Amino acid sequence: MADNEGMANASVVILHSGGLRSLVATALMLREHEPAQMNLLHLVDGRENAATRIEHLHRQAEYYQLRRVREVDVPHVFGHGQGKQPDGQPTGPLATAQQLLVGLAHARLHQIGRVLWPMACEGEAAAMARATEVMQLVNQLADLDPPPMPRLESPLLELNSQQVIELGAQLQVPWKLAWSCLHPGESPCRMCPACRRRKAAFTKAGLADPLDGAVTQPTE
């Protein structure tokens, strides 16, 4: 296995969606990194809510005074033949591997030793096993490049949505800056699978979601 001791700095790249998990991961990493060491990388994969997600990414960066924010266009990841899951995420290990490899390539380019993937598997053992396997395969593929190579990490992997919310509450994150809805707009639709999952997570955690406001119809 390659090590990352030769990396030029102790910075971290967070694969950032503008959503809840990305927000919590950012706050978590700020406990061990200075703002100048934080790099937020957004993969623009062609989803219809891309502009809204990017807007919330930048809001979070502004809140935490993070200046290193980059966007990379990878629309083919979302448009591949395997389609998408009910929550709008690309399906299949091929899409995930591509996203992780882009993150590693970005980190390598900027001599950064860590890449954080804010993935959570709802406590499902099979999902965790698949995600872990993909990470291991991507790390092994990265090791074919001359060292030092950055390493993939996923600190939220074993958490479910409720636990992510509870962790975020401990970190005092600004929930209103995280976008979950599958649709673009001023307010979340509160009807799509992602909105319902977010609502359930806050309810189970016994917390109020500041985005629980007026309902808007999804954009056609």
UniProtKB/TrEMBL annotation:
<comment type="pathway">
    <text>Purine metabolism; 7-cyano-7-deazaguanine biosynthesis.</text>
</comment>
<keyword id="KW-0547">Nucleotide-binding</keyword>
<dbReference type="GO" id="GO:0016874">
    <property type="term" value="F:ligase activity"/>
</dbReference>
<keyword id="KW-0436">Ligase</keyword>
<keyword id="KW-0067">ATP-binding</keyword>
<protein>
    <recommendedName>
        <fullName>7-cyano-7-deazaguanine synthase</fullName>
        <ecNumber>6.3.4.20</ecNumber>
    </recommendedName>
</protein>
<dbReference type="InterPro" id="IPR018317">
    <property type="entry name" value="QueC"/>
</dbReference>
<comment type="similarity">
    <text>Belongs to the QueC family.</text>
</comment>
<keyword id="KW-0862">Zinc</keyword>
<keyword id="KW-0479">Metal-binding</keyword>
<keyword id="KW-0671">Queuosine biosynthesis</keyword>
<dbReference type="InterPro" id="IPR014729">
    <property type="entry name" value="Rossmann-like_a/b/a_fold"/>
</dbReference>
<dbReference type="Pfam" id="PF06508">
    <property type="entry name" value="QueC"/>
</dbReference>
